[in-house]
Each structure stands twice: as C-alpha cells, then as structure tokens.
Design goal:
GO terms for molecular function: RNA binding. The chain is α+β, with helices and mostly antiparallel strands. Helices cover 23% and strands 29% of the residues. It contains 15 helices and 36 strands. The strands form 11 sheets. Strands 6, 12, 13, 14, 15 and 16 form a 6-stranded antiparallel β-sheet that branches. A 5-stranded antiparallel β-sheet has the order 8-9-7-11-10. α11 packs across α14.
C-alpha cells in the first residue's frame, strides 16, 4: 500500500501561472499554412509594438497596476479554521524615525545595542523626555511621538568586558529623519488607498519586536526570537535545538495582523570546550588517541565560537576561537617576555594559575585579535558562551533529530504560539474557508480500479496501474554503501523490479550487470536508469552524483538511502516505482476531467502552464549558489515532464 499527500509546499520565490498561446475557432488549432512565406513576411512587417492599455479591472497609482479580484470563490464545503494571526489595534500616536551614528564604529550589533541601552538609562528622563525609543540595526531609532530636538549628540560610557573591564567612551548622534503616516495605513486597511505603506508597516513591525529583543535570555535572529526557556531538544555532537517564534506584521482584509509561528534552530551547548569536543568526536579524551580527521573536525566546528575563560577568577574574558594549535598541549611553548624567553604552556599554567592541565594530548585554542601573536588557551579552562546560534551545516543525524523536534500537530503548535504571552490579541484569528472537492484521477484501463477519488488528500496505488508505463530495458544498480551486502542488493533489485512491472512499467528483470560496488570503468553501456544506493551519511555524494549523471552524462538516476532500502516495504517500493516512471518518460495518472476536456480555461484554448521555484543553499553552505528552476507544460493532459538544462548564469 502506498499513500500520497495531496498538495505541495511552495518555497523560495515559487509560483504557477498560466498563459494562453493561441486561439482559433478550429478546436483551438492555429494554422499558418494558409499564407505563403512572402505574405507572412508582409504581414509581420505591418506589426507595430506599442504599450498596452491597462485593463479596466485594475487599481493602483503611478506605474504599478494591480488586477482587481474578479470575485470570491463559492465551490466546496465551508469550514471555520484558526490562523496563526493576531489582530493589532493602531493607536493614535505618531511614529517618528531617527538616524543614529555611533562613534567609534563597532561591528557588533550587541555592543551597539548596549550603547543605546546605556544612553536611554542616562538620558531617558531628561533629554528624551521619558520616551522609550526602539533601536534597530545600528542606524535607526523609532519613538512614539517626537523627541524635543531635531539633532543632538550624546556621550556614553560602557564597560568593556573583553578589555579587563575598562570603560569605553562612545559618541552618539541622533538626527530626525521623518514621521510615519499612520493615516495612510488606516486608509489602506479600510480600502481607501490602493498601495500598502510598506515603510510604516516595517516601522511598526520593528516596534513590536523590541520587547523580546530587550530580554537577555532571548536571542534575536532576524524576525525570529529563540530561548532555551521556550523548550529545547538535544541534536547530538554538542548541539541543542531551541524553540523560538517568528513574527511579522501583515495587512489583511480583517485589518492589521501579527503573524506568529513557532520554529526551531540549532545552538551550541554551553559547556567546557573539552566536554564539547568529547561529544563532537565521540571519544573519551582520557584514553583515546586523536586522528587527523578528529583534529580537522574540531577545527572546522570550533572556529568562530565564542568562549569565556575560567582560570582567572572573577575576570571572565571572552574570545572568539580563531583556530587550533598544530602541536599538542604538552609540547606547546610560547614567548613569555620581551627578551624572547620560551616557556612551556603546561609549566606556565602550573606556576601562575596553580592549574595542572589534564588533557595534554589535545591541541590548544588560538584566540585573540592578532593572528601573528595568538593567545593559547587549554580547552579545559574555556566555557562556550551561551546563546550562540550554530550556522554551519548540520550532520544527517542532527537533521533527523531536528525534524523530530519540529514535527507538531496543529493544536500543539497553536498552544505553543499562545504561550509566548503576546498581548496583541487574546486568541488566534478565525477565518471562514472552503474545502474544495478533490479531482477524479484516471488510471490505466487494465487495473482493477480505473479511477480514484482521493479522500482527505491521500490515495494509494492498490489495484491500480500507471496510466502510461515507462520503459526500462537496461539498468544498473550501484552501491556506494559499505553496509549494503550483495545479498541485500540482489533482494532489493528483484523486489523493485517486481513492483515496477506490477505497476504497469516495462522493466527489465535484471540489470545489465549484477549489483556492483561503484567502479566507473565497468560502466560500458549507457543505461536507461541508474539505481544508486547511498550511505546514510551522504555528505556531497548525492549532489555530485546528480550533477555528473544528469547534467554532464545525460543519465537518469534514482538515489536510495541504505537505511530505507534494507527495510524496504511495499509502500517504499511503490513510491520508488512512481518516481522512476516519471523520470523515464511515463505518466502516473491524469485528471479525468482533462480527458473529457472539462478543465476550465485549459480545455477550451491551447494553454501553457508554468511553474517556477528558487532553491537556496542551507546554512553552512554559503559557497553554493541559489538555483532557479522553471517548469512548463503545454500537453493537453498536463502530466509529463522533460528536463532541459541551460548554461548556468549568475544573477545580480
């Protein structure tokens, strides 16, 4: 039994649109045979390009025109649902925007925020007349009502914990930029203005995010806010997932609404670096030897993480890790005075701090702002600073644990949103919606079930055959997994072949070669299909295999993870058969209404349906590009796809 979830997720800048490509009274066919070549050339020369007049059903000012909504849908069963939107009431206060300049310039947003907090603490009741400003991204300040000046400079002192608690003096200039027109927003929400005042909405969105940003235990990340007090789960290898919430102010038909949703992201566990490293490499540091792979993994993960020292009493200085030493702690020496005297780090810590270093075979951390003269710190005297988001790539095991933590039922998700205590509105918004009737699906006439009506967005392939089965005469099965035995491969190939044939495909009983361990010199014939068994920790193997096979060689591939294949059941095999069938030119099912030409618009005129999406690289893969893909379909049944790869272009 195999089941499929109806609908699909839209991400990036994806979308679908339809364009009519011709019209004729002759069953939608356009013919040019009635004209000679010379007549066509004459007619083409008479064409004149000119701007099209905007349709009558548009609204908007200036160059931007928007199509009016043609009406409201009526089909389907009416239901009332709760949305994660909370209505917001506008106050009559005027919102003012100020430009902020802090000197000397610092790159840390946290330091800039501390400077502004100190400014409000010192000057809040005097120069600011008690108004509580909202500071945003180094340069912007917002207040409810005007400040008593157009421009003014302030001097603020801030203790620098990274410089032995010395005070740093900052000069802050605040200059009035303008005020937000809340009347324009109110008119837009009432339908009196066609254009949304995005600047006003952004300013209000910033104001709503000020309260969680000001709480030390909450970590802001863009429009999202995270804290381990909201809930956390262990991901493994020294990482935890923290629960947080996303907020965004949106204009809606019901008024101004605060969109709130829960989400998770990975944070580095606050612990001794030595304990973190032990979890990271999965070894007991007391009795295990480190390999080069261990050192490389430690260096890659630790770089950039901020640590706090514990061996200097109350002076808890913080440093970002810049690297690891190339020698073990027991052999590490450094220059301890201006005369160039060399001293062992182990002896120095024993004499100065009365600390006997335990893990002598570990490398030391390199910290400090001078790469030519780094500061060396043993891992056991450094604690990872709490609240650091992990922005590198997660391992496959960590991804799995994160997905388990984020999988929630709608009712649980709603309760978590309400628990954040937002005072905008008491309950989520209720919306009247419609459940559309599912389309009737057509399968092959030789199956027991020739048609299928999905229920609750799901259906299966029981007693059905593919409407058009693809052909696979020659195929290979190659294993890249050390845990996948030849017996496993023979069993899997037989079961998969049986499922493809039962589903209605012409599928060869055996591959050209028996299942083999990957060996490029043995692939002499280009097959119709390559089945690749991948290890569970695939790294870059999947991406490289797809790139080489499908964009350079022109070989259709189907990749399978070892953990799925070794316990493959009928559901998994059926899903694989459906994916393979489409890839080799078959069609799984079609809309019954498309066959009888009853699909609105599409059935009446020749039509192209376009879909587009942008896939962005995950965190930790900044060197990889975003990939834009476009799909179009002009066939009458709109149920098959052919790939075409174009030369890559860099978009600016």
């Amino acid at each position: 039994m195999s089941s499929y979830q109806g609908g699909h997720g839209v991400r990036g800048r994806g979308g679908v649109w339809i364009r009519r490509v011709g019209h004729s009274d002759n069953q939608g066919q356009v013919s040019a045979s009635q004209y000679s070549a010379n007549e066509l050339e004459d007619r083409m020369s008479e064409l004149v390009l000119q701007p099209a007049a905007p349709p009558e059903n548009t609204v908007g000012t200036g160059k931007t025109k928007y199509l009016r909504r043609p009406g409201k849908g009526t089909r389907g069963r009416k239901v009332v649902i709760r949305a994660n939107h909370f209505l917001v009431q506008l106050s009559g206060k005027e919102l003012h925007h100020y430009d902020v300049t802090i000197m000397p310039i610092v790159t840390s947003r946290g330091t800039n925020r501390e400077v502004m907090r100190a400014l409000v603490k010192v000057y809040g009741h005097s120069n600011l007349e008690g108004r509580l400003p909202v500071y945003y991204r180094r340069k912007s300040l917002y207040t409810a009502g005007p400040l008593p000046f157009e421009s003014q400079r302030f001097e603020v002192s801030l203790a620098d914990e990274d410089q032995f608690l010395r005070e740093r003096v900052f000069k802050v200039e605040i200059k009035h930029v303008g005020s937000a027109d809340l009347g324009h927003l109110e008119a837009f929400l009432m339908g009196g203005q066609p254009d949304a005042p995005q600047g006003v909405i952004q300013a209000l969105d910033i104001v709503l995010g000020e309260h969680p940003s000001s709480i030390n235990s909450i970590i802001p990340v863009g429009r999202s806010f995270f804290s381990d007090s909201f809930g956390s789960h262990k991901l493994g290898d020294g990482l935890d997932s923290w629960r947080g919430f996303y907020k965004s102010l949106r204009p809606t038909q019901m008024g101004l609404s605060l969109n709130v949703d829960t989400l998770y992201t990975a944070f580095v566990v606050s612990t001794l670096v030595s304990e973190f490293v032990s979890k990271l490499i999965g070894k007991n540091l007391n009795n295990s030897r480190l390999t080069n792979a261990d050192i490389m993994k430690m260096k890659r993960i630790l770089k950039g993480i901020k640590v706090e020292v514990t061996h200097r009493g109350n002076t808890r200085r913080k440093y970002p890790i810049s690297g690891l030493t190339t020698v073990a702690t027991r052999d590490l020496t450094f220059t301890c005075d201006e005369l160039g005297t060399k001293k062992k780090l182990v002896d120095y810590f024993r004499e100065v701090y009365q600390h006997n270093i335990r893990f002598l075979d570990l490398p030391c951390l390199e910290v400090g702002s001078n790469p030519k003269r780094p500061i060396y710190l043993p891992m056991e005297v450094c604690v990872i600073v709490k609240g650091q988001r992990y922005e590198k790539k997660l391992s496959e095991n960590q991804k799995t644990n994160l997905l388990r933590a984020t999988c929630q039922k709608p009712v649980d998700r709603e309760n978590n949103i309400i628990k954040f205590g937002l005072t905008v509105s008491g309950q989520p918004t209720t919306i009247e919606s419609r459940v559309l009737p599912p389309p009737l699906l057509k399968y092959h006439e030789t199956g027991v079930q020739k048609e299928c009506l999905p229920r609750f967005g799901a259906w299966n392939m029981n007693d059905k055959k593919l409407v058009n089965g693809g052909k696979v005469k020659f195929w290979y099965c190659i294993s890249f997994s050390p845990n996948f035995t030849p017996n496993d491969a023979r069993w899997f190939c037989k079961e998969l072949g049986d499922m493809c044939r039962v589903s209605g495909m012409e599928f060869a009983e055996r591959p050209i070669l028996p299942p083999i361990v990957a060996a490029g010199d043995r692939l002499e014939t280009l097959p119709d299909l390559l089945i690749a068994i991948l290890p569970d920790n695939i790294g870059n193997l999947y991406r490289n295999l797809k790139r080489i096979c499908e964009t350079e060689i022109g070989l259709v591939t189907q990749c399978c993870l070892t953990k799925k294949v070794v316990r493959a059941n009928l559901v998994y095999l059926s899903n694989l058969a459906l994916k393979i069938n489409v890839k080799v030119g078959g069609r799984n099912t079609v809309l019954a209404d498309a066959i009888t030409r009853r699909v609105p618009v599409v059935s009446r005129e020749p039509t192209i349906i376009f879909g587009a999406d942008v896939s962005h690289p995950p965190p930790g893969e900044d060197g990889n590009p975003s990939i834009a893909a476009r799909l179009s379909q002009s066939a009458r049944l709109a149920s098959s796809v052919r790939n075409r790869f174009l030369a890559p272009q860099r978009l600016s």
